[in-house]
Design a protein that fits this description.
The chain is an alpha/beta fold. About 35% of the residues lie in helices and about 20% in strands.
Length: about 290
């Protein structure tokens, strides 16, 4: 098993005729993902990367049976692209776009949560079920089929964790980049529920960062509901006070959301905390050996 996507997932790309959409569609096809079409309003009837292009997501779904989408449209249009995918009944929506206005996501978030769709992102690298389906921009070649569920607010940390777990022979089930914005479609808790129910996932690695309260909330959930070994890493531990971080969601306000608070909450929940980025794979091994 895996979570969210597998070898049978049928993917479209919204924005396939743009430079980024075309490039990463090609990468997903090379990985073996079943990308079946693209969508760009006004360019229906054309082809891109050898795939048919439709004017609307609804048309693409009707013609190809697509059930997932990756979105590479400019920030001002991303909210509407997400809502169009929800209206068309797409099950997994992956919004890669960075710079989506926060107020747009306020509007989109509640609509998505009330639907049957799952939104990953925005401002994320995407998700990948190792050796089955890649939707996004992550380097596929470092992934190896295995037993660790990986989730992160940081794309590059995801890649580092994947490299380490592959090198240690642990491998991964599904890796999910949640996105670094203040409002994203899927939370750590949402994914803990899925990994806990997945037979193939034997351990879970969570990578958070300073700012917000998502990691503390996840720790409380793990303590009450997760039976599998969990390891975690918090980025930003050595960030100097007042230093602006790269992610919009990494904002410490009112003294809340510090690395120390998050690490204390994780350890209190019985989670094995990696002491540095180089320790993430080893932390998973320690969690498994408990």
């Amino acid at each position: 098993m895996s979570i969210l996507v597998n070898k049978d997932t049928r993917v479209i790309c919204q924005g396939i005729t743009g430079k980024s959409g075309a490039f990463h569609t090609r990468g997903c096809l090379e990985y073996g993902t079943k990308v079946v079409a693209g969508v760009t309003p006004g360019k229906g009837g054309q082809t891109a990367e050898g795939l048919p292009v439709f004017d609307t997501v609804e048309e693409a779904v009707a013609q190809t049976g697509a059930n997932a989408t990756m979105i590479f449209v400019p920030p001002p249009f991303t909210a509407d692209a997400i809502l169009e995918a929800v209206d068309a009944g797409i099950e997994v929506i992956v919004a890669i776009t960075e710079g989506v206005p926060v107020l747009d996501m306020v509007r989109v978030y509640e609509v998505v949560r009330a639907s049957n769709s799952v939104l990953i992102g925005p401002n994320c690298p995407g998700l990948i079920t190792a050796e089955e389906c890649k939707i996004g921009i992550m380097p596929g070649y470092i992934h190896q089929r295995g037993k660790v569920g990986v989730m992160s607010r940081s794309g590059t940390l995801t890649y580092e964790a994947v490299w380490q777990t592959s090198s240690l022979g642990l491998g991964q089930t599904t890796c999910v980049g949640l996105g670094g914005d203040p409002i994203v479609g899927t939370s750590f808790i949402d994914l803990f529920k899925l990994y806990e129910a997945d037979d193939e996932t034997e351990a879970i690695l969570m990578m958070g960062e300073i700012g917000g309260t998502a990691e503390e909330e996840a720790a409380a959930y793990v303590k009450e509901h997760v039976t599998k070994p969990v390891a975690a890493f918090i980025a930003g531990r050595t960030a100097p006070p007042g230093k602006r971080m790269g992610h919009a969601g990494a904002i410490i306000s009112g003294g809340k959301g510090t690395a120390e608070e998050k690490i204390a909450a994780l350890e209190a929940a019985g989670i094995e905390v990696a002491q540095s980025p180089a320790d993430m794979g080893a932390a998973v091994k320690r969690a498994l050996s408990r």
